[in-house]
Amino acid sequence: MTTPATFPLHRRHPFWKLARIEAVLLGRTPQAVIWMAVLPIAAIIVLSSLHGTTVPNQAFGGLSALDVYLPIIMVFSLVMSAIVSLPGVLTTYREKGILRRFATTPVPRSYVLGAQAVIYLGIGVAVDVILFVIAIASGAEVPGDIGGFILSLLLVALVTLGIGLLVTALAPSARVAQAIGGVLLFPLMFFAGLWVPRSTMSPALRTISDYSPLGAGVRAVQASIGGQWPAAAALLVMVGYTIVCGAIAVRMFRWE
Amino acid sequence: MAVIEVDRLHKVYGTKVAVDDVSFTVDEGEIFGILGPNGAGKTTTAECISGLRRPDGGTVRVLGRDPIRDRAETTTTVGVQLQHSELQPNLRVREALELFSSFYPRPADWRELVDVLGLEGQLGARFAKLSGGQQQRLSIALALIGNPKIAILDELTTGLDPVARRDTWDLIDGIRDRGVTILLITHFMAEAEHLCDRVAVIDAGRVAALDSPAALTAELDIKQRIRFVPSEPVDESDLLALPNVDSVNRHGDEFLVIGSSEALSEVTALLAKQSIIAHRLRVEQPSLDDAFIAITEGAEARNAKGRDDR
């Protein structure tokens, strides 16, 4: 018996190795990049360059169109990455036996999911930073409460991740996961105010919006732009959805 | 020394019994085959040994450890090539090798594996662009990349062309020479006959037979078929009179004698005594194929009988 050669060179922690590979693979999937990054960035550029979108408007309760739509588009980018793209990728991995393949190696299962979550949330957050910089450069209002602004967006990121993992856990196949993600997009973004801004919603509709995960998210982000600390109710709604969705996802998750 | 011990393994999916009662041990350095028809419980047995599934009954020990409880240790020392398991379609071969080697504490040099497996030209290719044989070879490389003591290979050559299959067999022989114990799951008799030191034939969730391929074929009294063209006319009744000959047929000049394992020596002795030369003499030995059919049919008959008795 010969001793096989070992190869200890360029050791990197397997978690970061996985995350790096997943980022590279994401870069090789043009559709995902278009939905997650190109579309929101194009939307904010168009909005910023239109005439009068930075002027306060009575229709939006004294805010400019850009101030109203910046949080909505930031939330949209997180929805696209965590609720539409991530479940599609993870369910495909399950379907193709890739998760099982990883399960036969010493890499902890949590790394495989964690690396994906880090990459997809990371992209969503990076796109949000770009959106924010473009908007501010175009004359959007600088958030009055920057701490509340960052906290609110982080909670939006977590709640979208929770919903995305729930879809992954419940969907029997990749096709169903993509369909669920696509269908969920509409009510989630509707109550976030994509079509009818929250300031113009009827009181009943706005109450539903307050209790929807992304309606609460936009409410919190918008308050912090206006210089107020976000309402505790809005933050708690997001924390609640994150915990409930996350707990069900962990309980129901299947590896094959 | 036994490196894999399976004792009275039992596994149920819902109401379907996948593995009923399977026991065997695999010694260090062996190539051990698990043979059986589709749905016999081969893959489930392998999955229980790999620690992917929890047995419903019985025990599995791999290098003395419980593969589920000692997952970290088992996954480090056991390399697995799964059936129907793909990689990310856009993942390049080199990236897959680097990624998987980062999972193990003492990985093999993947460049050497690539060399042995003939994947040098594909390092930059994406998984989805590889041929079936190349995907299979990459899968084998990934099973060996952690320097395992045991390699479990499920349906190794299914979907490969005959040349690729032969190459893969040579490769497995080479892996054994490194001191790796191999558990091979297959439904190809020729593969088991060529590679395995011992095989367990599993049928309907039970071990129907367990021995070396040669012994399995010898144990069953399977008939030999002897064909020859005699140089001089032979009396058929002389041949039929031989104690181990069951039947004699003539097709033109060619004789076909069917008999048990001693028939050949009797026939050649008879011909020699009459100074007749047997031209174009061919003996068709019973193969593992024949043995497999005899074993699984025998098991079916016993099961049917068992049902009738109840």
Count of strand segments of chain B: 13
Written as H for each helix and E for each strand, in order along the chain, the element string of chain B is EEEHEHEHHHEHEHEEHEHEEHEH
Q: How many strands, what sense, and barrel or not for the largest sheet of chain A?
A: none
In angstroms, what is the radius of gyration of chain B?
Answer: 24 Å
Helix segment tally of chain B: 11
- Give the overall pLDDT of chain B as a whole number: 88
What proportion of the residues of chain A form beta strands (DSSP E)? under 5%
Q: Gyration radius of chain A, to the nearest Å? A: 20 Å
Q: Which two chains have the most extensive interface, and how many residues on each?
A: A-B, 29 and 37 residues
How many strands, which pairing sense, and closed or not: the largest β-sheet of chain B?
6 strands, mixed
Kindly state the percentage of residues in helix of chain B.
Answer: 25-40%
What does the model show?
The complex is a heterodimer of chains A (256) and B (310). Chain A has one domain (30-48, 60-252). Helices cover 73% and strands 0% of the residues of chain A. Chain A has 10 helices and no strands. Chain A has helices at residues 14-27, 30-49, 65-95, 98-103, 109-137, 146-170, 174-192, 203-211, 213-225, 232-252. The model of chain A is unreliable at 1-9 (pLDDT under 50). Chain B has 310 residues and is of the alpha/beta class. Chain B contains 11 helices and 13 strands. Chain B has helices at residues 42-50, 71-77, 93-101, 110-117, 132-144, 162-177, 189-195, 213-219, 236-240, 263-273, 288-309, and strands spanning 2-13, 16-27, 31-35, 57-62, 78-81, 150-154, 181-186, 198-203, 206-211, 224-230, 245-251, 254-259, 278-284. A 6-stranded mixed β-sheet of chain B has the order 5-6-7-3-8-9, sandwiched between helices. A 4-stranded antiparallel β-sheet of chain B has the order 11-12-10-13. A 3-stranded antiparallel β-sheet of chain B has the order 2-1-4, covered by helices on one side. In chain B, helix 6 links the parallel strand 6 (150-154) and strand 7 (181-186). Classes of the chains: A mainly alpha (256), B alpha/beta (310). At the A-B interface, helix 1 and helix 4 of A face helix 2, strand 5 and helix 3 of B.
